[in-house]
Amino acid sequence: MGSAAGGGFPQWNCACPNCEGLRAGRLAATARTQEGVAVSADGERWVLLNASPDLRLQIERLPALHPRAPRESPIRAVVLTSGEVDHCLGLFSLREGRGLPVYTTARVRDALVRENALAGRLLGAGGPLGWRRLELEVATPVADAGGRPTGLVVEAVAVPGKPPRHLESVLDPDPEDTVGLRLRAARGGPVLAYVPGAAAVDDAVRRVAASAACLFFDGTFWRSNELADLGIDARRAEAMGHAPLAGTEGAIARLAALDVPRRILIHLNNTNPLLDETSPERQKVPSKNRHAADAATRRTASSTAAAPGT
Amino acid sequence: MGSAAGGGFPQWNCACPNCEGLRAGRLAATARTQEGVAVSADGERWVLLNASPDLRLQIERLPALHPRAPRESPIRAVVLTSGEVDHCLGLFSLREGRGLPVYTTARVRDALVRENALAGRLLGAGGPLGWRRLELEVATPVADAGGRPTGLVVEAVAVPGKPPRHLESVLDPDPEDTVGLRLRAARGGPVLAYVPGAAAVDDAVRRVAASAACLFFDGTFWRSNELADLGIDARRAEAMGHAPLAGTEGAIARLAALDVPRRILIHLNNTNPLLDETSPERQKVPSKNRHAADAATRRTASSTAAAPGT
After folding, report:
1. Which of A77, A115, A126, B229 has the highest count of CB atoms within 10 angstroms of its CB?
2. Sequence-distant (≥ 6) Cβ neighbours of residue B238 within 8 angstroms
3. Best residue in B19, B59, B105 to probe A by mutation, most A CBs within 10 Å?
C-alpha cells in the first residue's frame, strides 16, 4: 500500500534535496505514502500488515479493499510489527470498526493501550506541540513557537455542540467542547468566521458570523434522519452535534438571514445529497451557500484571510 | 484544505449510494478529504484551523505550506474548534514539530492531554478494535471479528530493533518491540516474509526469510550517517532501529546471500538516495532488490500472498 518511512515522501517539514527536488519536479522519483502491505489468501478477505497514517488514502487507491455495503469492509484484520507511529496511527482511522482484530505481540499492545505512551509523548509536555489556551470571547493574537506574531488574531465563541463521542461517558458536556472562530489580520481588514460544527444556528453562531466577509459553516447532514434512513446510525443529526441543512427551520434558511456575503458549507458527510452535483437538493442551495470542494475552491478558501480588503 | 466530515468522502467502510457511486464513477461528485482550513495574514506564515487525519496529503497539495529547509515549515500554529477525531488526529502527523503552538479551549486540551480519552476509547476495551496476541515463533491463524478464518497464517519472529521513540524513556527495550512476519495461506503455498524494520540482518532475519518466495525488507537508510550528514538528526541508522543498506557489511550485501527469489525494499526514508531513480546508489542495487513504488508495484506486492503457486 505504501513504501515510505515515517513522515512519507515528501515529508511535511522537510526540504532535503529529495523532498525539495520532488516538489519542484526536478527529481526522477515518485511520491510515496507511509509503509504498509495488504495481503489476502483469496482476494476477498484482506489483512493489513501495519496501519500507516496514510491508510485512508491507501485504501481508496486499492479497489480490492473497498466496501460492498454501507458499513462493511473486506479488511478483516490488522497485524502490527511494532508500535511505531508510522505503523499504528492508521488504527485511529478505522474508528468505525466493529471489533476489528489487531494482532500484535503482548508488548506492543501493552505499550499502545495500557501505557498510553503514544498519545502521552505526542500530546504531552516536552512533545512536538505546545498548548495555548483560548479563552472564550477574548481576541487572542496567534503566535508561533518562538512567541513571534503570525499576524492573525482569533476569537473563540462557544456554539451548540456536544463532547466528542470518545468523551461522552467520561465527561459531562461543557460549553468549551465546541467553538466557532472569528479570525482577522492583526492589522485589520475583514473577518473570517469558521463554524465547522454546530448543532443549531443560534445567537452564538450569529455572534461568530456578525459582520464577517465569509462564513464557513457545518454542512454535515442534509436531513436530521439522514443516517437512520440509510440504516447506518439511529441518531439524529442534532444529537450528533450538527444542525441539518434542509427545511424552513434548517441551517440554510437561517444562514440566509445573515448579512454575510460569502457562506461556504464545509464538513459534508459522505451521505449528504449535496455531494451529488446533479441532485435535486443541490439545486435548492443558493449560490451564496457554496460548499467547498477540495480541489476547485481551495485556493479561494485558504486565501480568504490572506487577502483582507478583497 | 478539505471539506468532508469525519471519515472523508468516500469513507473506508462505506458503500452508501454516494460513496459507491463515486468509486464506480457514476456520481457527478468530487472525492473530498476531511475538513480543515489554512489561513494566513501575509501568505508566508500559516495557521491551520483544525488538523484532520488527512493533513499530510492536504499539506502536500498546497505549495504555500511546503517547507523551505530540511526541517522547517511555514505552518506556525494550529487552532482547534473541538476535540473530535476528525479535527485532531492530524496533530499526530506533526510529530516532528518543535513546540508548534496548538490553540484550544482549556476543556479540549484537558480532554486530549489529561483524560486521554481519545486513545483510550479508540484503542481500549469496547472500542472499534479487538486485540489478539502474537506469541513469538508460533504460527497463528488470522481470524476476523467473528472468529472466522481469513485463510492466512502468520508467525512473528523477534528481530533486532528498539522501542518506539515515545517509549524510550518509559520502558526498557524488549524482544517483542519489533518483529518480522512470515505469512502463508492456510491451505499451503509460498511464504511471504515481511521485515519493515530491523537494525541488522542477523540470524533472526534469516529465520523470517527462510525459504520465502518474497521478502519485504527495511530500506530506510542508505548510509548509517545519512541524517547527520544533512544536519537533521545526529543518530546513526542502527540507533534508530534500521540497518543501513550500503557497504560490504550493509543490508543489501547480506540479503544477497539469502535464497529468496524476490527481495523488495520498503519503508524508505525521504533522505534515501534510492528514491532518485537516476542516482549512482540506485544503479548499485541489484534488480532482485526492488523497492516498492506506491503506484507501479502495489498490485504485485499486495497479491504476493494472494497467489500461492505463482
Report:
1. A77
2. B199, B200, B224, B244
3. B105
